[in-house]
Design a protein that fits this description.
236 residues; alpha/beta; OB fold (Dihydrolipoamide Acetyltransferase, E2P); 2 domains; 5-stranded parallel sheet; 5-stranded antiparallel sheet; 33% strand; Sig_transdc_resp-reg_receiver; DNA binding
Length: 236
């Protein structure tokens, strides 16, 4: 397998380091280096690229803004000196988020994730009409991931897809909240337009928030009564 990648960064030293890292990975092939988002867009209009190594702090259009203009199938690894954009990176479906200075080991870990997404997949199993057993399969990017229901702490809705949050990872699934809600067992309850929580993962409820440390999620008026009724069913 060969992965064509494009470096987009306005810092020559960062471009030099990433170029060296790319050349050390046998399956990576560097097609070009761009120093701003406009140059990168011009390249992407002409050529297909498997993977973008994309800085966020770029002159003019930022890397985050560029990523939001790309097709969902375009793989992106953010490379940045700022930790503040990590949450936003999940909303773009990025493969990974690398903080500068980037170490060789961390770089290899990120591009390995990209390689996993690009590998051919076996035929997808039929989707379950509802919960059966203690796990289900979901399609995330180019992977089909097995997820145990009891591993999910909560589900967050993000526009046209959802994020399954577990203790170990965050899994992006291209489904709407209503579809995801139908797949989950009875121990999952909607507390907000953007959140479904696992009752078994709740630490406490304080006023209009449910605590699943370290997360603190709001309870909206629309879902409050049904949620509290489910809690009362489990109360002593």
């Amino acid at each position: 397998m060969r992965i064509n990648c494009l470096i987009v960064d306005d810092e020559p030293n960062a471009v030099h380091l990433l170029t060296a890292y790319v050349r050390q990975v046998p399956y990576l092939h560097l097609v070009a280096c761009c120093y701003d988002a406009g140059e990168a867009l011009d390249w992407l209009r002409r050529e297909a690229v498997d993977l973008l190594l994309l800085d966020i702090n770029l002159p003019g259009l930022s890397g985050m803004e560029l990523a939001r203009t790309l097709m969902p199938r375009q793989l992106v690894i953010f490379t940045t000196a700022y930790a503040d954009y990590a949450v936003q990176s999940y909303e773009t479906g990025a493969v990974d988020y690398l903080l500068k200075p980037i170490t060789p080991g961390r770089f290899l870990q990120a591009v390995s994730k990209a390689a996993d997404r690009l590998r051919p997949l076996p035929p997808a199993p039929a989707e379950l009409p509802g919960p059966a057993g203690d796990y289900f399969f979901v399609k995330s990017g180019k992977q089909i991931v097995r997820v145990r229901f009891d591993a999910i702490r909560y589900v967050e809705g993000l526009k046209s897809y959802v994020m399954l949050v577990t203790d170990a990872e965050k899994i992006i699934v291209y489904k709407r909240m209503q579809e995801m809600e139908a797949l989950l067992p009875a121990c999952f309850k909607r507390v907000h337009l953007s959140y479904i929580v696992n009752l078994d993962a709740i630490r406490s409820i304080e006023e209009n928030h449910v605590l699943l440390p370290p997360a603190r999620l709001p309870i909206s008026a629309k879902y409050r009564d049904a949620f509290l009724a489910a809690i009362r069913d489990r109360s002593l």
